[in-house]
Amino acid sequence: MRAGNPASVAPRSIREVPTMPETFLSCYEILDADALRWDVRLYKARRIDGAGQGHAGRGDVKQAIWGLRKKNSGLCKGYGFVIDVDAETAAVPANWELPSGAVTDGYIVTYDKTFRTDPANRSHRKVITGILREAAKKNFKENHSDVLGVLWQDYDRFCQMPEGPRDAEYLFCRKVGFSPKVLRGNRWVIQVAIATASVDGRTFQDYYRDGRVDLLAEMIEVKQANRVDRQNRPVAVRVLRDQSASFQADVAALELVSPDLIAGNGTLSRHEQASLAGGSVPCRAFGKPPVQVPMGRVRLILDAQLTGADHAETIIDPEERHRLAGHVRDLIHGMDAHGHQVPLSSVPVDASAFPTLLIPPPALRVRGPDGAESLLPSCVRVNESALRDRAKDRLEYVKRHGFLIQRPINPLLAWPTRFGRDRARRMKNDLNHILRSEGIEYAFEDFLYRDVEHLNAHIAEHGFDATPLTLFVDLQKKS
Questions:
Q1: How far is Cα 197 from Cα 318, in angstroms, rounded to an integer?
Q2: SS3 for 193?
Q3: What is the spatial distance between Cα 11 and Cα 267, in angstroms, rounded to a whole number?
C-alpha cells in the first residue's frame, strides 16, 4: 500500500537489469522510492541549563527522546524510531504523542510539527535515510543469513565471526554496513560497504596466564593514545565477548569498563598475574550496566595501529567485495521499514548512467615516523600504474606508522556584542554551509561576548576547543 500523493514525484519507469553492468557503483537502487513516505512528528530537545548544543550532543538528544517514550509508552503505539535531524531536533512516528514541554534527562522536549516525508523533498532526506538505516539494522538483527553466518554488531556495522588458526596473532572478520543515499535524478539507493575488523588472537586469560598483561596494557594504551570521542573523553576500549556454546552463538562487542585496571595488573609479578587468570573483567554494552565476563571469553578488538605490517591481510579483493555486497543485498531486499517494504534492484547501479569527470587524487596527509604528519603528493598523471603506485605508497605508510587520526572539535564563533546578533548569525550560517559542503559534520555555535574575560568564561563553561581568530579594531580619530 502506498501512502500519500504519488504525483509529487515525477514517475520513472522501474525495470530490473538482468545482466551485470560493465562498470557499477557499490549500491543497489530502491525500486519503489516513491513509497518512502511516512507520517512523522518533530520534537525539539533543548538543554534546561541553556547550554549550547552541537553535533557531539545529538546522541544525548536521541536518548532523551527514547527516555521520554519509555515514560509514556501508553501514548506511543507500536515499534518506532528516533531520528536525529540536527543538534536539537528529532523525528519520531506521528502516532507517538509525546507530551510537549516534558522534562527528561536534563532536556525540555517540545512538539514542533507533523508532516509526511516526500522522497523528492531535499529537506526530508535526513529523516528518510534515518528510517531506512534503522530498518536495515533491525532487519540484520532479526534475520539470519546462511551465507553470512553468525554476525556481531560493531556500532553501525555487522561482522562475521573471526577466522584464523588457533595460534594466530590476529584474527580477521569481514565487516559489512549499509548507507541510504540519493543519487543524481533523485535515485534512492542503499550503499553497501565492505571492510575488515581485526581481533586479538589471544584472550585476556592468555595474557594473565602467561604473565604478560603488560603487553595487553600497552595495546590498550596505543588504542587510546591521542584519541577522544565527541565529548572530548578518551575513546572507549572495545572488546569482543564470545560465550558461544556448541549449538548457540552468543557474541557481542562490549566496552571495557576499567582500562586502568588492566594497566595496574600489568605491574604485578607474573605469579600474581597468573593467579588472576581464572577471574573476570567488567564490561558493558552501550547504555547498559556493567557485567562480569570471564577473561577466557574476552579478546581485544584491534585497529591498524596494532596490526601494523599485517594490515595487508585486511585488503579485500574486488571479487570478494562484490560477492559479499550481493549477500548483504539479499538479506535486506524487501525489508520492512516501518510498514513499507523496500525492494532493491538485483544488480548494482550502472555507473555509465551518470556523467563522469576524472578527478586526480589530491595530496594526502598520512601518519609518518614518530606520529608526525607527512604528505603524499598528488598524482601528476592519472593512469592505472600511477594509481596503483599511489595505493602502495599509502599502504606502506599505514603498515609502518598506522592511520593518521584527527581530533574532533567543538567549534565556537566568538562575535563581539557591538556588531550585533544578525551579523553573527549570518557569519555562522556561512561557515556551517562551507563545512557541510565539504562533508564535515561539525558545526559552529555563535556567542556574543563583551570582553575577553566574558568569552573565556563561556569557553570554560561549555567546553569549546576551537574558534576562528578574528581581530576587530576600532579606529577612532584623536580629537
A1: 17
A2: strand
A3: 69
Reading the block at residue 393, the C-alpha cell is 605508497
The residue written with cell numbers 581485544 in the block is 300
How many angstroms separate the Cα of 467 from the Cα of each of 12, 36, 53? Answer: 47, 40, 16
Decide which of 3.30.310, 1.20.1250, 1.10.150, 3.30.70 is the CATH code for 39-116.
3.30.70
The predicted-structure confidence for 309-352, as pLDDT tens digits, reads as follows: 455 666 788 899 999 999 999 999 999 999 999 999 999 999 99
This prediction's pTM:
0.72
User: b or e along 44-58 (b: 16 or more beta carbons within 10 Å of the residue's beta carbon)?
Assistant: bbbbeeeebbbbbbb
Q: CA-CA-CA-CA torsion for 201, 205, 210, 215, nearest 10 degrees?
A: 60
Q: d(Cα 47, Cα 460) in Å, to the nearest integer? A: 18
Classified as helix, coil or strand, 15 is coil
The β-bridge relationship of strands 187-203 and 27-29 is antiparallel
DSSP state for residue 181 in the 8-state scheme: E
Q: Where are the alpha helices (DSSP H) in 21-91?
A: 58-71
Asked if 53 contacts 47 with a C-beta cutoff of 8 angstroms, the reply is yes
User: What sign for the dihedral angle of Cα 262, 265, 267, 271?
Assistant: negative
Q: Which H or E element spans position 47?
A: strand 39-47
C-alpha 334/C-alpha 326 separation (Å) is: 14
